Amino acid sequence: MYPVCFVHGVVTPFVLGQRIISTTKNFTCRNAHLSPRKSSVVQMSLAESSNHQHHQPQQDKPASAPVNPKTAARFLIRSSLLYLVGFLIYLTGKQAIVSKLQGTRPILAMVLASSSAVMASNPLTAFIGSSLAFVGSSLLRSWDYFVFMLGEALMWNPMAKVFMLVFISLVFIAIGAMLFQTLDPGKEEIEFPVWSAVRGIVNPFEDDVEKVSLRLVSVFIASMGVVFFGILIGIIEGWVQGTVESLSSGKHQVIASNHVVVLGYNSKVLEMLRSWSKASEAARPQFGFRPRTTYAILAPENDYTRIMDEIADSMNDGELPHIRLACRVGSPYLADDLHRVSISTAKKVLVAADESAPRKTANRKLLGKLVALRQTVPDFKGEVVAELVDDNEANVVKSVFNRSQVSSVQPVTADILLGRMLVQAIRQPGLASIYNTMMSGDPRFSFHVVKVKDFDPSLVNQKVSEIDRLSKDSSIVCGFVNAEKGGEVDLEITTGNLILKEDSELLVLGDPFRSTSLQLVNVPKNSAKVQLVMHDENHPDALKAIRSRKTVHEVEKHEKSKKQSILMVGWRNDIADMLTELDLTLASGSDVTLIADEDTGLDKNALRSLQLKNSSLRVVTGKPDSIDALEPIFKKRHSEGGRFDHIITLSIANQGQTSIEADSRALASLATFYQLLDDPLNTTVTVQFHNHQFADLAWDNTEEVDNVIMPDTIASRLTSEVVRDPRLNELWKDLFSQYGREIYIRPISRIVSDLSKPYSFKELSEIVQTKNNAILIGYATDTGASINPTGADRNEPRSWTSIDALLIVSDD
């Protein structure tokens, strides 16, 4: 069509120009009263008269009348305008091609150009052609507008397709009824034309008519029925497909109340979901069953598919049986996306840290999410938990919700608390696994805050210092909620004068609404290191291994009075805080050697401001998994006549490496330790893994490794504990800090001097409370360990040996 426009828009004006030139010549000849043809005739007559004697004058016709100058001027103006119109027609056709107007404008251009070609010779014909072209252009424009409006209606109005189908059906019915009425006016075979037309569309060929004309009409209506059902099936298919895509896209709203909203997603969220699922078992039964909490995740759009696949795999494996889960796509900065997860009706909100952001900007992004939350839901009355990278902005997080109706704001620095827990694990092998078990979400080994009337009504009106910690077989009372301190959890119940009321709250270890007994599982007694395991008698195959093979006497070697030599391999972002906490637990004169390189994150500036009182720090730059870098350190230590009491393998990962690559480097460091250690049994080896498949290797059969720690798992469980009950945040800070109460593995000989007499766990609990102002939460023997023992294991007296140990919560 483009060449046609070119021909009619350029060539036609050129032809018109030639005609203008020809017309100008004719006008000149007429002005001289001679036409070109007549002038040649006169010349021939003069020549003949000169050759002959006699001359007879020739009778010429009178000359043509002179052309009116006004007419010539109008002709020239009209021709010039035609040339301009032709060029504009060419531009119109070209623009139509560019804007893809389905050829309507090129056709119009061709019609106008054709009419302009004859306009000079026949104005009446040109006028009629131009009028027809104008009418055609208007009709084409109206059709374009109709198609445009129809497309917009079908695109934006979901009911437009239905209305279109109804309209087409009515048109078909009307046509069919008219044809039936026309061909059978006497209603001999078609008694009800309209109903017959309807039946012909819905159920074709049902009526058997005799007339051929009626049969043809019936076939026509049946074909229209095929069109009708084709459109109907297309509408239904499109609706079903759109609904499925909408549901799978995660953009529909969550309909829930009193639920938990997670803003963002990181590697810890999936482990949190597992912990929350286990914790749901501790919910108080209502109407014979335990209620299930809904958790709504607002995930980023670029990772939505991957996140859904991870969660679906966990759900298919039966890891999330006790919770309802909804995942939606959106940004925590946008109000519409926040309302998509029903943020206004949630009871708790967890703002997850952005692991993709640099460490220095992660907290800033989190603060932006908190501000967006407050501005979007100014009357939010629930609890907010913010996952911080460090505690520098902890006070800023709380200030965001000043003068708001939020009931609680808890900033969680799980990574820093994890580093402090690692310090305790160095001194007490196996303690990390105890913490891991207590934060797993299993209600039998977790802390719970429960009202007195729900826990044990017999404790009402008693002093908190006089209550029996083991009054209920399934739990151990560890503290109470002190309203005078702003609702903080207090572990000092022996000195409390609070009179318990029905609504008073207690901190208990174990499921307050269910009784499950634990029994010991036998392990080889000749093992140099004791394996601490727990066994649920209701599930014989459920073994919970606390990975520690140090005997309880080994713990006494790590008292603060003894100088320690520690080797730290790798790097953590919170290494400065970890070294500060470690220094508080060491005797004066201890030394710490740190080996790392810039690839693993070594930052010497972070270590220069450290002020260690009890230990000295030596930093070695080198590959943490290279024997060439580790061997000189061990040789130097041996030359000084000593050895390393503790070796800690931290994360060994370069920028951009996966967890598998980082853990494989940790295994390479362990292989080097096996070669360089003279006596592995005298050195405590702690290694951290990021991938659970490495942590699940058969470390129980390896004597050289004492603690296997998964920092991501423990950090996830710690955050999930705070989300479950924000008051547990300060509790875990207290337990991990060197200034507060800790969990200790103490030999029983330090508690009871006469081991010839049998004692029950309940009796030992009273002795620990009276003698040490401590809380007994479990015990360990050469055959295993038990946390929160119940039943006969709690109440029946038994014999104890000097290698048995007690798990207590104490200041020292």
Low-confidence stretches: 1-18, 27-64, 93-105, 516-558
User: What is Rg?
Assistant: 47 Å
Helix content: 40-55%
Please, how many helices? 26
Strand order of the largest sheet: 3-2-1-4-5-6
Secondary structure tally: strands: 23
**Major beta sheet, specifics?**
6 strands, parallel
What is the typical, i.e. mean, pLDDT? 76
Q: Which descriptor suits the 3D outline? A: elongated
The secondary-structure class comes to: alpha/beta
Beta-sheet strand percentage?
5-15%
SSE order and pairing:
Elements: H1 2-31, H2 36-51, H3 69-98, H4 104-119, H5 123-156, H6 160-183, H7 193-202, H8 212-249, E1 260-263, H9 269-279, E2 293-299, H10 304-316, E3 323-329, H11 335-340, E4 348-351, H12 359-376, E5 383-387, H13 394-400, E6 408-412, H14 414-427, H15 431-438, E7 447-451, H16 452-455, E8 476-482, E9 488-490, E10 505-509, E11 518-519, E12 532-536, E13 539-546, H17 552-555, E14 565-569, H18 575-585, E15 590-596, H19 605-608, E16 615-621, H20 627-639, E17 646-649, H21 659-676, E18 684-688, H22 692-695, E19 707-709, H23 711-724, H24 728-736, E20 742-747, H25 761-772, E21 775-781, E22 784-787, H26 792-795, E23 805-810
Parallel strand pairs: 1-2, 1-4, 2-3, 4-5, 5-6, 14-15, 14-17, 15-16, 17-18, 18-19
Antiparallel strand pairs: 7-10, 8-9, 8-10, 11-12, 12-13, 20-23, 21-22, 21-23
